[in-house]
Amino acid sequence: MIEVENLTKKFGDKVAVDGISFRVHDGEIYGLLGPNGSGKSTTMKILAGILKPTSGKVLVEEINVAKNPIEVKKIVGYVPETPILYESLTPSELFNFVGSIRGIPKEKLEERVNYFVKAFGIEEYLEQFIGTLSFGTQQKVSLITALLHDPKVLIVDEAMNGLDPKSARILRELLLEFKNEGKSIIFSTHILSLAEIICDRIGVIYQGKIIAEGTIEELKEKAHEESLEDVFLKLTESKDEIAHIVQALKESL
Amino acid sequence: MFEVVKILYRELHYQILKRNPQIANDEKKFRKQLKNAVSIKRNVAIQSIAFIFFGIMMAIGLSFSDDKTYIVAMLSSLALIPFIFSLYVTTVQSSYVVSLGLFEPMKALPIRIGALYLSELLIIDQIPALAIILPSIAVVISKYPLNGILVLLWVFVGMLAGHALGLIIYSAFGLRINYRKSRSGSLKNFLKILAIFAFMGLFYGVSYMQGYIQEHSEKVAALIGRYSIAYPFTISSIFDPKKSVVMLLLYIMVFIPLYQLALKRVWSGILEPTLVSEKVKTSKFRASFGGKVFALMLKDLKIIFRKTAMITGFLMPIYVLLPQILMAIKSGNLSLTRATYFLFTLGVFAIPGADAVLKVEGKVLDFLNSLPLTKREYALSKALSMSVIPILFSGLILVLAIYYDPKALILFPYMFLLPLNASFLTMAYFFHYEGIELGIPEFNIGHMIVLMILVGVLFGIITLPLFLLSYPFEYFVSFGISLVSLGILYRLL
């Protein structure tokens, strides 16, 4: 369970996250949607214990993130938007490194790595330097490192980026499986059709504030729109803007 | 054409700089270095100034001599440097050009791209090597104009030969990019490290060469005579201009076709990289790990030893002490006092290693931050990583010292205690005194000086018993003090 109350994060004068509150229950996939720069990644980094909140309260499995980030990191699996990993290490070395830091027993580590490596089809890349791997393969390596310790809470920040259709489908199934196991998952994506399929509830974040929250049906009803994409564009005030841009493009071409 | 080369040059040097974690992770340093690195004029000028210092040293020696044997011997030796530089730069830069995909964005543009762009790009970085021999050539031209010009032509031919051979070596061994962790990759890194050391040791080399040629000019002349048709000994022919010109033409006739052939091969490799079908063995993951601190340390060392740019500072203690140790060995005497001095110096020189171990994290800090690591574990692992080279090198000195004087065995605890004290103090300074969170603290020359003073004071206290007490108690008390200080510093981490 994740509980966020009045969370604010400032970088100097800039307010990245502006007093947001939401909850992610056990066995739930919560989609955090928003345009670029709306504060999604900052929120997710705070939940993962990477950034400190400026104010507000964040509890992950009842542990206060600001007061005890190490304990939170033990139970959280975080997949960043862009996989920035040690380029001079091989995936094999990275998995060993993460296994050691997380204190995962040797047999369990071998079992889990081999399972995920096979699932994502990266067996042949295990001994190659990460820096030489494609973006998609690096993303898969990043995903595996986040899943190794069987986290109770999963924070997935646009992790579908660069994944091939097969791996994207596997990740989708994995997330649903984790949900069935009772884990809390917070998930952000720009692929709204995917969010529509897997998210139980959605929070739309815009300019650092949660401007709408609910199930997909509730959001559609509130916004009087047919699809999640239209809901999203209406809420983020992009619908009219897009129409203007398209019109201008047509005229200029 | 030059406009295209200018863009390629900027991109090549920008990418090289970006791949150097010690620079790329320091925004200020990166911006400062970027200004010079992407400008052909500035970059060539800065490197040329570095070389011209050695060039003038050699030219002064030549200006006082009228002995043609000596002049020829000196010029032949000097001419070897631009040749090697040319060979090295061509091989290394070609590998960068290919691995960075420098020509990739140009393939889609409607411009004529050709192998000559590549050659011109690689030659720019070879120009500074000329600065090492130009002052000597100027001296020779002022005394013997025609012969001096012949030397200049020979140097150009030497650089052409180096460039052509570099292209051949690269096309033969380098076009297959090795993605896998392999022994050949480690060997390549080791060779790069050797090249860095060779460059750093240029001063010692040049001084030694000057002395050796002066003392053994007869022997050198005989050697040159024996191999007079091989570059750089061909320079001996400058005082027989006809023979020299014929040989020059012969060299040009051999190396120009070779150059064209090799360039064509490298270029076609860039345009259409040949995929070497390698049977990919799907491997099973095997876990092998220890504790948190050990894992962090192992990771740091692996990264440092795989990134040539990082290793230079890390190996600083070896570079500083090696000449002194070699001199001590040459004199056949490595006393207990001298060995103690070496161990203390090595301890102090653990400090520059902090830069490499801290910058290893680079942009990966978010990833590291997502793991359950405490600041103490992080700082401790950094302190241990930066001690590794000084400890290993101290071990080597200890073995040598014991060989000369078995009593030196008593110094054994210093092998660990001194580098560890210096590293623990360095990390305590950043993470306790400056209160930095798990991250990369700024490490500049000011920090280095402060840390050198602090370590100097600490080592002063540790050495105090050596001046006040008698053997062997002096050492026992000194070890005791270092253990206590290490304990205190450990608690501060």
Which descriptors apply to this entry?
heterodimer, A: 253 residues, alpha/beta, Rossmann fold, six-stranded mixed beta sheet, four-stranded antiparallel beta sheet, 10 strands, 24% strand, globular, B: 493 residues, mainly alpha, 23 helices, 0% strand
Describe the model.
- The complex is a heterodimer of chains A (253) and B (493).
- The termini of chain A are far apart.
- By secondary structure, chain A is α/β, with parallel strands linked by helices.
- Chain A has helices spanning 40-47, 69-75, 91-102, 106-119, 135-147, 165-180, 192-198, 216-223, 228-235, 239-252; strands at 2-11, 14-24, 28-33, 55-60, 63-64, 76-79, 153-157, 184-188, 201-206, 209-214.
- The model of chain A has no long low-confidence stretch (mean pLDDT 90).
- Chain A has ten helices and ten strands.
- Chain A is globular.
- The longest helix of chain B is centred in the first third of the chain and has 32 residues, at 68-99.
- Chain B contains 23 helices and no strands.
- The mean pLDDT of chain B is 83.
- The radius of gyration of chain B is 26 Å and the shape is globular.
- Chain B is 76% helix and 0% strand.
- Chain B folds into two domains: 2-271, no CATH class; 292-492, no CATH class.
- Classes of the chains: A alpha/beta (253), B mainly alpha (493).
- The interface between A and B is large, with 45 and 36 residues.
Write the SSE topology.
The complex is a heterodimer of chains A (253) and B (493).
Chain A: E1 2-11, E2 14-24, E3 28-33, H1 40-47, E4 55-60, E5 63-64, H2 69-75, E6 76-79, H3 91-102, H4 106-119, H5 135-147, E7 153-157, H6 165-180, E8 184-188, H7 192-198, E9 201-206, E10 209-214, H8 216-223, H9 228-235, H10 239-252
Parallel strand pairs in A: 3-8, 3-9, 6-7, 7-8
Antiparallel strand pairs in A: 1-2, 1-4, 4-5, 9-10
Chain B: H1 2-18, H2 21-24, H3 27-37, H4 40-63, H5 68-99, H6 104-107, H7 115-124, H8 134-143, H9 145-174, H10 183-200, H11 202-215, H12 217-226, H13 241-271, H14 292-306, H15 308-314, H16 316-330, H17 336-348, H18 353-359, H19 365-369, H20 375-404, H21 412-433, H22 445-468, H23 473-492
